[in-house]
Amino acid sequence: MKKTIFKQNHLLGIGHLSTADIDLILETAESFVEISTRNIKKVPALKGKTVVNLFYENSTRTRSSFEIAAKRLSADLINFSASTSSLKKGESLKDTVMTLESMNPDVIVIRHSAAGSAKYLTTFARSAIVNAGDGFHEHPTQALLDALTIKQKFGTIRGLKLAIVGDILHSRVARSNLFLHHKIGNQVNLIGPPSLVPREFETMGAGVYYDLKEGVKDVDVVMMLRVQAERGAGVYFPSIREYRKYFAITPEVFSLAKERAILMHPGPLNRDVEIDKTLADSDRSVILRQVTNGIAVRMAVLYLLKGAGK
Ligand code: CP
Q1: CATH number at residue 173
Q2: Whose CB has fewer CB within 10 Å in the chain, the N or C terminal residue?
Q3: Nearest-10 crossing angle of helices 287-306, 19-33
């Protein structure tokens, strides 16, 4: 297995990765996919290493797949949950991390509502830090597992056209995907109401569309985003009914994409808000494949940071 080429000993965002890093992570992930299909789903690559899952925000997919990834690599894992920790007694993020660090972990995986929280940890922590979603900023492993899913479907991640639809403004998933596909030269159309897709995104190399049909025309990938009510998205458009009318993906609108196009969603889904429920379950949808690929990608990231190659 090749050595890690992360410039830093951390994974903070796609913005910090080179295209060679992205390719290496995906190739490493591809080599790990098969492990999850074995009867004994375990290799000793991270035996003796300790991974801390430090989640200050709710998560189903990211948290459980980092846990499974660490365990399939034979690492020890501590699951820290904000709701049952001393955070409730007023302990700060720094004191919490320093306390966990005194138990000598090797990797801390953090999800936090504050943009920049993962980077902040690198200013005082010894462990490798992995960003599992920091506020509106980045969700790098989501963009990487999306890229692995795209690669499995098309045989490449290059030369493609993507549409990302919905609450772009509040979406760390959109930002990480935009960085990734911009780096490798893919065209990305961002689609949604003007209040959720500011024109400023054009300066990041994206096309901005306020008409869903126009934006999805002839794309290879349609990536729907969740309407993030908890981040205040509901105040950016008049009603869910109106949002659904203009920006929900339906079989009719999806048919405007390329014939081979795939439908993605990072989850959790708001069925029949941003995505038609029959389409979500159709054979064009790769939503559950994305979840499966989360394990291999997170195994690759942990391995490249702390495995034998390192
Ligand atoms: N896609 C994603 O980050 O999902 P979770 O919030 O369930 O981790």
Answers
A1: 3.40.50.1370
A2: C
A3: 110
Note whether 256 and 279 are same-domain residues.
yes
Q: What's residue 266's pLDDT?
A: 97
> Is position 2 within any domain?
no
pLDDT at 1 over 60: no
pLDDT of residue 126: 96
Q: What is the Cα–Cα distance from 249 to 282, expressed in whole angstroms?
A: 13
Ligand 1 binding pocket includes 177 (Cβ within 6 Å): no
Do 58 and 85 fall into the same domain?
A: yes
From the alpha carbon of 60, which atom of ligand 1 is closest?
7
Residue 65 Cα to ligand 1 middle (Å): 10
Residue type, 107: V
CA of 230 from ligand 1 middle (Å) equals 14
Mean pLDDT, to the nearest integer, of 64-76?
98
Residue 191 three-state SS = strand
Verify whether ligand 1 is closer than 6 Å to residue 59 (CB atom): yes
Residue 60 beta carbon below 6 angstroms from any ligand 1 atom: yes
pLDDT tens column, 89-102? 788 999 999 999 99
| Residue 264 belongs to a domain | yes
Q: Among residues 289, 221, 229, which one has the least CA distance to residue 249?
A: 221
Tokens matching residue 185 = 């030269």
Residue located via tokens 């399939």:
72
Supply φ then ψ for residue 84, to 5 degrees: -115, 15
Please report where in the chains the tokens 């690559």 appear, as a residue: 45
Q: Give the pair of three-digit tokens for residue 18.
A: 């080179």
pLDDT score of 5 more than 60: no
Averaged confidence pLDDT in the chain: 93
Is there a single domain that holds both residue 279 and residue 159? yes
- Structural domain span for residue 164: 141-286
Range 118-122 average pLDDT: 97
